[in-house]
Amino acid sequence: MIIAIDGPAGAGKSTVAKLIARRLGYLYLDTGAMYRALTLKVLEKGIAINDAKAIAALALDSSIDLINKPDGTLTVTLDGVDVSLAIRKPNITKSVSDVAKIKDVREVMLKLQRKLGGRGNVVLDGRDIGTVVFPKAEKKFYLDADLRERTNRRHKELNGLGQEITLNAVELDLSNRDKIDTNREFAPLKKAEDAVYIDTTFLSIEGVVEKLLVFING
Ligand code: DC
């Protein structure tokens, strides 16, 4: 079974997707991590963020993989190197939406995501999973939350990673990315018509997981 979880940054998608995958013994695929890995390579190579042609060529020439570890964590590799931590840095977060809006980049990722998703029972989280990547996914969810709550959650998460960043900076990043992700021409962030909408603003992680499991098992 394919379970698609879409929604804006900070809505709790990755935490929830990881827990659901663990409970069900499914693979977890963080599709945002794939765009982040490519963004890391773009910045390392010094390619301009608006050079769509060069970035698309780089996407074709890159090997990105997601490896589920037995302890429930996910390792992201770029050309065979573990970049799981590097892709969470603020410079990546700042540029990733501009990389993800490039049509030819999305085509490369689409193929890769469909290939990885074909590995079996899988939970994928992203922005266009239920609408574009797996429109026939058996279960689709759209997780959302107030910007303020998403800001608090992301702020806490980044602090946990040792990143000192102000609440204002986090809020600005989230609203900028929401704007780019929602308004882009190709595969914008949007709820699939047949996705279950869940507002997680006032829900605990466990509460969200339980809600999803009711729909998944139903
Ligand atoms: O989930 P995340 O915040 O790690 O995602 C990083 C960026 O990648 C996000 O701002 C938009 C892009 N993205 C996308 O365009 N499509 C996806 N399926 C997943 C992420």
How would you characterize the overall build of this protein?
This protein is α/β, with parallel strands linked by helices and 218 residues long. It has one domain (2-207): P-loop containing nucleotide triphosphate hydrolases (Rossmann fold), CATH 3.40.50. Helices cover 51% and strands 17% of the residues. It contains nine helices and eight strands. It has helices spanning 13-24, 31-45, 52-60, 90-100, 103-117, 129-133, 147-160, 167-183, 205-217; strands at residues 2-6, 27-30, 64-68, 74-78, 81-82, 122-126, 139-144, 196-199. The strands form two sheets. It has a five-stranded parallel β-sheet, with helices on both faces. A three-stranded antiparallel β-sheet has the order 3-4-5, with helices on one face. The longest helix is centred in the last third of the chain and has 17 residues, at 167-183. The radius of gyration is 16 Å and the shape is globular. It starts with a strand and ends with a helix. The mean pLDDT is 96. It binds 2'-deoxycytidine-5'-monophosphate. The site of 2'-deoxycytidine-5'-monophosphate has 14 residues, from helix 2, helix 4 and helix 8.
Q: SSE layout and pairings?
A:
Elements: E1 2-6, H1 13-24, E2 27-30, H2 31-45, H3 52-60, E3 64-68, E4 74-78, E5 81-82, H4 90-100, H5 103-117, E6 122-126, H6 129-133, E7 139-144, H7 147-160, H8 167-183, E8 196-199, H9 205-217
Parallel strand pairs: 1-6, 1-7, 2-6, 7-8
Antiparallel strand pairs: 3-4, 4-5
Helix pairs in contact: 1-9, 2-4, 3-5, 4-8, 7-8
2'-deoxycytidine-5'-monophosphate binds next to α2, α4 and α8.
